[in-house]
User: What shape does this take?
Amino acid sequence: MVLPRPATAPWMDTATRRLRILLVEDDAVLSTVLAELLAALGHDVCGIATTEVEAIAAALRTIPDVMLVDANLQAGSGMSAMSAILRQTVIPHIYMTGRSRLAVPANATVLQKPFDMAGLKRALDHVAGQMARQGPEGAQLPP
Assistant: This one.
């Protein structure tokens, strides 16, 4: 079953649109800082998940506009969580990693840790641009 994207969401850049963002991060300090940065950029954090299982459940429950996903979690994998989520619905996402960029899918949007507010905004704007080009249905689901 594929869950639909919310019909009320206009597809425009993050400067003019308040995004609902689900954080998937197992570092409590970093998730708190990220939530504050996102609020300062005018966005809402609709949840914080710390494990692969929590990420899947939270994403399917909240259907956020965008997910910020730590690629490497202590309990599971952010990339495995996204694979499971994308089999059920389309949710634009940004991987965060302190490891090699080569560990994430080639076409993924990646924030290399450490990053600052400007880097976070660039990544969000990049994903918003992709969303605008693809329309409200988002990217094509993987096979």
User: Anything to note?
Assistant: The longest strand covers residues 44-49.
